[in-house]
Design brief:
31% helix; 325 residues; globular; 10 helices; alpha/beta; 2 domains; binds oxa(dethia)-CoA; four-stranded mixed sheet; Peroxisomal Thiolase, Chain A, domain 1
């Protein structure tokens, strides 16, 4: 019996041109390069230009992924954009991406799961492909997260950046006996009781403004490693694989100490963990596909590799997805 799978055809990413180092931030807020590098492992972040919106970053990442896959927008019939920072309250950033790619066909929508958004989007696209609703999905994580920052609050403003990453998933029917490929298993979780540990104090229904990020950093940190490892184990369990089978662990890029903590708790050798938080800070839903793109471009992730994606963030939301590349 054949098995329908969503296989990865390509990845791509985009970072805005403007780079802001820790030292530059320390000129306007009471912080230091040493504190940021030691506590979070961030060296610099990219900040979108005036007039450059989330959909623009998403389109740049989408074009890079299409080129990587050798495909054109005509080949895509589903666009899912994971974002917390859409250009407008509505329409979805995804429909703007569809327009900017010159598409009139298919369907497009956004997913809002903050930093876990890309894992939620990959899982949703995978379901749509398996249900026969789509053949080729462009899955994007894109954020202009710095637009939600209070630049006088040193506990949050040093942590985040802007960026976008994209992945193309394609329906494939694996023949009897053909080795497993594509998305093998996923697990998603949320617990809204933790909503106020990481949230934005504005919105269309409450204040009518976009608001600013507030975070109880140490509380989020306290939950992160346990929730990440639980969902990774749940995903492995479904698939029959173990941690030892993983070639690459591509975690959400929020804090190097959280990444190292999760890697150590899982018993993963550090060289199997992809870390890019130093070059782009926490870009929320964009961070996992940004890290993936770096590891594919530099030749680390190759066809046949077993790759575990994971993320945890506001909500709380968290999730993981296991992919045979
Ligand atoms: O992507 C969604 C998930 N989000 C996360 O994963 C974030 C999770 N949390 C974290 O990564 C960490 O909790 C932070 C990086 C946010 C903070 O690190 P921490 O080690 O938990 O520090 P802390 O909040 O306990 O603060 C320690 C000290 C405090 O000073 P006192 O009270 O000890 O004198 C802070 O005021 O560091 C101070 N501090 C800073 N100092 C210099 C806080 N922010 C800064 C700063 N520069 N930017």
């Amino acid at each position: 019996m054949s098995r329908v799978r969503s296989i990865v055809r390509g990845v791509g990413s985009y970072l805005p041109k403007n780079v802001v180092t820790n030292a530059e931030l320390a000129k306007t807020v009471d912080t230091s390069d040493e504190w940021i590098q030691q506590r979070v492992g961030i060296k610099e972040r990219h900040i979108a230009a005036e007039g450059e919106f989330t959909s623009d970053l998403a389109v740049a990442a989408a074009r890079a992924a299409l080129e990587n896959a050798g495909l054109t927008p005509d080949d895509i019939d589903l666009i899912v954009v994971a974002t917390t920072t859409p250009d407008y309250t509505f329409p979805a950033a995804a429909t703007l991406v569809q327009m900017k790619l010159g598409m009139h066909h298919g369907f497009a929508f956004d997913i809002q799961a903050v930093c876990s958004g890309f894992v939620y989007a990959v899982t949703t696209a995978d379901s749509h492909i398996k249900n026969g609703l789509a053949k080729r999905a462009l899955v994007i994580g894109a954020e202009t997260f710095t637009r939600l920052l209070d630049w006088t609050d040193r506990t949050t403003c040093v942590l985040f950046g802007d960026g976008a990453g994209a992945m193309i998933l394609e329906r494939a029917e694996l023949a009897e006996g053909e080795p497993e490929r594509g998305i093998i298993a996923s697990a998603l979780r949320s617990d809204g009781h933790h909503w106020d540990k990481l949230y934005v104090d504005g919105g269309p229904s409450s204040t009518g403004t976009a608001g600013h990020v507030h975070m109880q950093g140490p509380e989020v940190f306290r939950h992160a490693v346990g929730k990440i490892t639980d969902v990774v184990y749940a995903t492995l369990e479904q698939s029959g694989h173990t941690v030892a089978d993983l070639d690459w662990f591509v975690p959400h890029q929020a804090n190097k100490r959280i990444i190292d903590g999760a890697g150590a708790k899982l018993g993963l050798p550090p060289e199997k963990v992809v870390t890019t938080v130093d070059i782009h800070a926490n870009t929320s839903a964009a961070s996992v596909p940004l890290a993936l793109s770096v590891a594919v471009a530099d030749g680390r992730i190759k066809q046949g590799d077993l790759v575990m994606l994971e993320a945890m963030g506001g909500g709380f939301t968290w999730g993981a997805s296991l992919i045979r590349w």
